[in-house]
């Protein structure tokens, strides 16, 4: 089960110059398209005189949500090279925006691809990369006859018991951990009598 991926912990930047043009790359940790739009708006407002604001992003543990944008540069010369650097580093939940201040000299397709990809690579090189985990919460209820067995399981694993509630006839536990660990715990709990289980992903 895939429940981990690489991302960046906080914003980072890098700058590349080529024949008078400046390419300034900004990398942002993002979780959804709303955060992406917010970061793009911020960069556009901070760099209103830049000729282009090109970008690429990728989201999710399975990394199947992505987009790239050339913002007026020749097709495939800006957004795709930025995305290629994201993929080269195996990153997700990340947005990279590269703003270009035109220096008066045309760089050609090859030059643009190198410049946009190179600026994105610099921003990644300056970023703090870490492993992000998909977590899940599991809620279980058990009869008092099964409490000791359940407690033994909970004490001997990498999960966090977030809540315990002792009622008249049963006990409720809320546990949080990375998804693969929750699956392991669920398998063990299902072998016990008098235990009912519910779980949900955490966004």
Descriptive report:
It contains 5 helices and 11 strands. It is α+β, with helices and mostly antiparallel strands and 203 residues long. It folds into 2 domains: 4-132, Impact, N-terminal domain (Ribosomal Protein S5, domain 2, 2-Layer Sandwich); 134-201, Alpha-Beta Plaits, CATH 3.30.70. Strands 2-3-6-4-5 form a 5-stranded antiparallel beta sheet, with helices on both faces. A 4-stranded antiparallel beta sheet has the order 9-10-8-11. β4 and β5 (65-69) form a beta hairpin. The longest helix is centred in the middle third of the chain and has 18 residues, at 108-125. The two termini are 17 Å apart. 35% of the residues are buried.
Instruction: List unreliable stretches of 5+ residues.
Output: none
Rg, Cα atoms, Å: 24 Å
Task: Give the overall shape.
Answer: rod-shaped
Q: What class do helices, strands and sheet pairing give?
A: alpha+beta
DSSP helix fraction: 25-40%
**Average predicted confidence as pLDDT:** 93
CATH topology of the largest domain: Ribosomal Protein S5, domain 2
Question: What is the string of helix and strand elements?
Answer: EEEHEEHEHEEHEEHE
- Give the helix tally: 5
Name the CATH superfamily assignment of the largest domain: Impact, N-terminal domain
Can you tell me the CATH architecture of the largest domain? 2-Layer Sandwich
Q: Largest beta sheet: what is the strand line-up?
A: 2-3-6-4-5
Q: How many domains, as an integer?
A: 2
N-to-C span: 17 Å
């Amino acid at each position: 089960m895939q429940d981990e991926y690489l991302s960046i912990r906080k914003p980072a930047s890098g700058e590349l110059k080529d024949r008078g043009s400046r390419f300034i790359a900004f990398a942002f940790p993002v979780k959804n398209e709303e955060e992406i739009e917010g970061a793009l708006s911020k960069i556009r407002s901070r760099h209103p005189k830049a000729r282009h604001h090109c970008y690429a992003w990728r989201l999710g543990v399975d990394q199947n949500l992505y987009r790239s944008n050339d913002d007026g540069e020749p097709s495939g010369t800006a957004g795709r090279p930025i995305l290629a650097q994201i993929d080269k580093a195996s990153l997700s939940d990340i947005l990279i925006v590269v703003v270009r201040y035109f220096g008066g000299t045309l760089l050609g397709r090859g030059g643009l691809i190198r410049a946009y990809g190179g600026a994105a690579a610099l921003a990644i090189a300056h970023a703090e990369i870490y492993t992000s985990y998909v977590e899940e919460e599991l809620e279980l209820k058990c009869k008092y006859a099964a409490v000791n067995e359940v407690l033994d399981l909970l004490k001997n694993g990498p999960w966090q018991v977030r809540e315990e509630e002792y009622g008249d006839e049963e006990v409720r536990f809320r546990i949080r951990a990375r998804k693969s660990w929750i699956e392991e715990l669920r398998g063990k709990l299902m072998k016990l009598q008098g235990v009912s289980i519910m779980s949900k992903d955490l966004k």
